């Protein structure tokens, strides 16, 4: 007596009790988008990193543009340390905000340091908003009020664009990483 072995059918999910022409497994015939897309945390991380990099790129573009067009001698506009500070503070705020775990802020579980996490989050968001406000103040006081031409105003606007993009990057990374859903679209 010989036993005949048949290969297993991995895709046989059709119910044998009730068989109709509409009861079939679609994964046999097309790729599922769920398996193609990367996880949510990967998309959020790349998006946040791109926004952060583009923000700093705009600032360096304005810095190089002002040096290339020699604005220091012609229009008495120089980019000094005060123009760098909002971007540095925004970067520091991004780091502080994203070091905090959401469970620590909610007070869930055994987190005894919930009060410290809330204070740290408050300091991080305050730094981010202070940097955003200081970039707007620098732009208005140094570039808009003296009625400079559009080439010099571009250099000031890059400071604001940089800080807006870093702030958005920080919020995208914070809310994307700490959302309620776990890597499921």
TrEMBL record:
It is found in: Membrane. The keyword Transmembrane applies. The chain crosses the membrane at residues 43-59, 79-100, 121-145, 151-175. InterPro entries: UPF0220. Pfam families: UPF0220 (PF05255). Its main location: membrane. GO terms for cellular component: membrane. It is a multi-pass membrane protein. Keywords: Membrane, Transmembrane, Transmembrane helix. Belongs to the UPF0220 family. This is UPF0220-domain-containing protein. It comes from Piromyces finnis.
